[in-house]
Amino acid sequence: MILYFSGSGNSLAIARQLAEKLDERTMSLYDALDADLLDEKRIGLVYPTYWLDAPMAVKQLVAQLTLPKKAYTFIVITCGALTNNAIWSVRKLLKQKDIQVSYSHKIRVPDSSALAFGRNPNAQAWKFDKYASRIDLIASEILNEKQRLHFSGFDPFGWLLNTSAVSRKVYRFTLPVVNPDKCVGCQICTKVCPQTNIHLSTGKACIGDRCTMCLSCVHFCPHQAVEVAGKTTLAERQYHHPSIEMHDLIRR
Question: pTM higher than 0.90, yes or no?
Answer without folding.
Answer: yes
